[in-house]
Write a structure and sequence with these properties.
Chain lengths: ~725, ~170, ~70
């Protein structure tokens, strides 16, 4: 057994300068507030023995990911930790060093044997493993209880608690590996591949069904066309192609074509192009056929003549209508000369009337002014005197007034009336003149149009039209002749059209057979996909993926089984001690003894821990935080006790063991530690004053206290030893 | 299998229903084993493993035969026990599954009995244990057997195949 | 590591594919030592990824044939 005798720490985590600890008492207390370096002291022992094994992801401990070794405030120097172990053979000293500045620097390990021989590097590492025979996992489950391990169990979440108990039992690597395997989601990927394959299969199936339906449809069409099942072959298709070529050749000869070139498909693949060739050739031959050309020419001429005839007849009708309008006008109103004469007469009348009016107006204005003058005179006597010569004129005003009213006014008005009437008449005549001119103009236009029509008829018929010729009659005659010629051409074309129709029918039947065979070929090609090397490759990949999933499942099962077996073995070994310590420390009134069991979580394969009270009930719902702490401590102490004779180290390290414990539990823990102290050295780090006092009072073995205080960046903790 | 074979099997399934179709498929498979050169065939309808097949070069298979349209098959405790039973006599236990979908074929899987549990067995779990040599041999033979006998099956059902198998047994003995 | 040996023992006792599963387990433990659980996830995902790539390539060719 190896007893930790001395520890020197420099540059490690919270430490700066060298600090020495001597473990020369059965109980060594590291006491001080949080963040003073107590845990770092215990960690230093661990790092000295196990180096990188206690750092990083491979530990399976979350807190150890990114765990810092070197003091973060030192920029140079080395991390140096030396641990001395006393044994029956003498003192072994282990020193581990690492550069502060270079994070990934190699560690230097030296082991000094009792005979002062020094081993370095791999040899030293090898001796450490051989000498102490412990892995880091073993060390932390049976020698050094980390405060993080206690903290981890203080959770009500079953999954997290199982995780914490696995850690307490040193089974974290199993858990982490299982989680790593699960994280790869291999089954999910396999499922995706399987789905893609199935999707592809369905698409092929759909394509086959669609093609089969098309084939059946085309076969039904073929049968209705008189094609038998036996004729739906490539040979039949090629034979029919040859027949069609001969028919097209015969048509070409009949149509007088000299540039016809024979084409017969030599294989099934050429038939698609052959369809196009037949269509192109028959179209071309037809369009170039003399009868067809003649028919087209006659039709064109016919259309032209019909149009010209229509225009000419229209022009003639217009001219006749305009002539009638003019003649009616002249009958009613006279011609231009007559109208002109009437206008002149009316003008003369107006002049005369104006002359009369001038005379009448002169007199009228005299009388009007005299009446106004007389009405304006105030003296009555003056009203009977002539305003011009001053002669007496009795009742002059009334006389003048009567004259005005009875004669003059009426005369003037009469003349004015006559003048107005003459004016209106003149206007009317002028309008008629304009109207006549318009009629004359329109008539001239119609005549010109008709004459243009005659020229068009002459040009269309290719002859001169004399005055005595009737253009319409000439047009009618020509149209009759065209119609006769068209009839003859139609008859000639009709016979040839039957031949073309026959060729088109043959072509249609060939197309149906071609469609059937093409669809069958495509269907065959899809069926052959499933025997192709590409499909074989797909299946092989899927088989490989399935194999990988199956292999990893087997490995997972093995992992889960090994983890559970190890858990069972440890629980079995530590069971009685676990119960003893739990009852001793927790003293739960409702839990008369505690048993632990492990099963496999079927979903994850991880360990699932359950607890039973000795009366068979499940105590988990009534476990407080303090009880869970007791559970963690009991497990550790139980496992430690279970190692018995195989225990290589004769000391235990406890880091902050009283988290969440009440005063009574602390006292009971001290009692348990009193028993343990009789066979193991105890190194306890705690900030708990009550616990410390209880230890100092109730542990009967000699004790020494290292007080941690006043930690600074520049100097690390201030450590003083007090007995 | 090709589409013609699939369509013939589909016709049989549509006529007789999935239950009887499974039994017919089992008999057709037994016939295929005969055609592939296996001499000693025992085809069972009730207790025990569905098919025992032994060849002249001492290869012996015990098959639990299943048909499905889906992506899993039900395995019962009896199925597992029956296969375990045949292992004692030197037979290699196989699960034989025909997925009745176009382009699918028989799968013959030598899944370890320790990993075979009663319940729904996904076809994807059979892949790692496929006996490719047997699949390559039986699949084309099975197609021939179906194409040859589908007419008879449609008319005579299971009985027709019983008679054919009985004939084969007699021929085998002589 | 002790857990590694325990699992290896169980793999050696398997009915089938001992060699392949031993090789896989070795790869798993090596990844775990280097990169922890994440390392295992990445290694397995890489292996499956290579198979999936071959699968997808074959499927692409088959799609083209269809």
């Amino acid at each position: 057994m190896f007893q930790l005798a001395r520890l020197k720490v420099s540059g490690f985590r919270g430490f700066v300068g060298e600090q020495e600890f001597v473990f020369d008492n059965p109980v060594v207390l590291l006491f001080g507030e949080n963040h003073q370096g107590k845990s770092s002291t215990l960690n230093a022992v661990e790092w000295c023995l196990f180096g990188d094994d206690c750092v990083g992801k491979k530990t399976g401990i979350r807190e150890r990911v990114g765990w810092e070794i070197a003091n973060r405030y030192m920029t140079q120097g080395d991390v140096v930790v030396t641990a001395e172990f006393d044994s029956p053979d003498g003192t072994y000293s282990v020193t581990r060093e690492q550069s502060v500045a270079r994070k990934r620097a190699e560690q230097k390990v030296t082991v000094t044997l009792p005979n002062k021989t020094r081993l370095h590097g791999d040899e030293a590492e090898g001796l450490i493993h051989k000498l102490f025979g412990y892995s880091f996992q073993d060390f932390m489950t049976t020698v050094y209880q980390h405060q993080e391990a206690i903290r981890a169990i203080l959770t009500q979440e079953p999954r997290d608690r199982n995780d914490a108990i696995d850690r307490l039992l040193g089974l974290s690597p199993y858990r982490e590996i299982l989680n790593g395997i699960t994280g790869a989601k291999l089954e999910g990927t396999l499922g995706v591949m399987g789905s893609k394959r199935e999707d592809f299969r369905r698409r092929c199936e759909q394509a086959i069904r669609t093609l089969s339906n098309l084939i059946n449809g085309e076969k039904a069409k073929a049968i209705s066309e008189g094609i038998t099942e036996g004729e739906m072959t490539e040979q039949s298709a090629l034979r029919r192609s040859k027949d069609i070529t001969e028919a097209v050749g015969s048509l070409a000869r009949e149509l007088g074509s000299t540039d016809f070139q024979v084409k017969v498909p030599a294989s099934f693949g050429e038939i698609a192009d052959f369809h196009e060739w037949v269509e192109t050739q028959t179209d071309r031959l037809w369009k170039q056929a003399p009868d067809v050309l003649k028919q087209q020419a006659l039709a064109t001429e016919q259309a032209k003549l019909v149009r010209i005839k229509g225009d000419y007849e229209g022009a003639m009708a217009d001219e006749a209508a305009k002539q009638t309008d003019r003649d009616d006008f002249v009958r009613k109103f006279g011609d231009e000369v007559t109208l002109a004469k009437a206008a002149v007469a009316t003008k003369h009348s107006i002049v005369q009337l104006e002359d009369q009016m001038r005379k009448t107006n002169a007199k009228a204005s005299l009388v009007r002014e005299a009446i106004q003058y007389l009405k304006g005179i105030a003296r009555e006597a003056d009203k009977s005197r002539c305003p011009l010569c001053g002669a007496d004129a009795p009742d002059l005003l009334s006389h003048l007034d009567a004259e005005w009213k009875e004669q003059i006014k009426g005369e003037v008005q009469g003349l004015e009336q006559q003048k107005a009437e003459c004016g209106a008449k003149l206007k009317e005549t002028e309008v008629l003149v304009e109207e006549f001119k318009t009629l004359e103009r329109k008539l001239r236009i119609c005549v010109a149009r008709r004459e243009t029509g005659v020229s068009q008829v002459a040009a269309a018929l290719g002859r001169k039209i004399e005055k005595e010729d009737d253009p319409l009659a000439l047009l009618r005659m020509r149209l009759q002749k065209i119609e006769s010629e068209l009839e003859l051409t139609r008859q000639a074309i009709g016979k040839k059209r039957e031949k073309i129709s026959d060729i088109y029918n043959q072509r249609r039947r060939l197309r149906i057979i071609h469609e059937i065979l093409s669809h069958e070929q495509k269907r065959g090609a899809i069926e052959r996909i499933w025997k192709s090397s590409e499909f074989t490759g797909l299946e092989q990949a899927l088989d490989e993926a399935s194999q990988l999933v199956e292999d990893m499942k087997a490995i997972r099962s093995a992992l889960a089984e090994a983890s559970r077996e190890e858990a069972e073995a440890k629980i079995q070994a530590a069971g009685a001690a676990l119960d003893k310590y739990f009852c001793c420390i927790a003293k739960h009134p409702a839990i008369p003894g505690l048993m632990m069991e492990v099963t496999e979580d079927r979903r994850s394969g991880l360990n699932s821990y359950g607890f039973k009270s000795k009366d068979g009930s499940d105590p988990t719902p009534i476990l407080s935080q303090g009880d869970l702490n007791c559970l963690a401590l009991s497990l550790f102490l139980g496992l430690s006790e279970a190692t018995g004779e195989s225990q290589r180290f004769s000391f235990l390290m406890l880091d902050d063991p009283t988290q969440s414990l009440g005063s009574e539990m602390k006292r009971d823990l001290v009692k348990a530690l009193e028993d343990i102290a009789s066979c193991r050295r105890l190194i306890i780090a705690t900030p708990d004053t009550e616990f410390k006092d209880s230890l100092m009072t109730n542990i009967t073995k000699s004790k020494v206290v290292y007080n941690f205080d006043g930690w600074t960046e520049g100097s690390g903790p201030e450590v003083t030893r007090a007995n | 299998m090709d589409t013609t074979t699939f369509q013939r099997l589909a016709q049989i399934r549509d006529k007789f229903g999935p239950g009887i179709f499974g039994k017919i498929a089992q008999k057709l498979l037994a016939l295929a084993f005969y055609e592939s050169g296996f001499t000693h065939i025992v085809e069972r309808g009730v207790q025990g493993v569905d098919i025992d097949a032994a060849s002249t070069d001492a290869v012996k298979y015990a098959l639990e035969v299943k048909t499905t349209e889906g992506e899993s098959v039900p395995i019962s405790e009896e199925n597992v026990d029956a296969l375990k039973d045949r292992v004692k006599d030197g037979y290699t236990p196989l699960v034989a599954v025909l997925r009745m979908q176009m382009f699918e074929d028989w799968i013959f899987a030598a899944i370890p009995l320790s990993r075979l549990q009663a319940g729904s067995l996904p076809l994807s779990r059979l892949r790692p244990y496929r006996v490719s040599a047997l699949e390559t041999s039986i699949s084309p033979t099975f197609e021939r057997v179906v194409n040859e006998h589908s007419g008879g099956v449609l008319t005579g059902g299971e009985n027709y195949l019983r008679q054919i198998l009985a004939q084969k047994r007699v021929e085998g003995i002589h | 590591m002790a857990h590694s040996e325990k699992v290896l023992g169980k793999i050696n006792a398997m009915e089938q594919r001992c060699d392949e599963r031993r090789t896989l387990w070795q790869a798993v433990t090596e990844s775990f030592v280097k990169e922890g659980a994440d390392g295992i996830t990445m290694e397995l995902a890489k292996e499956m990824g290579a198979i999936q790539d071959r699968f997808d390539t074959a499927l692409g060719k088959l799609d083209a044939m269809l």
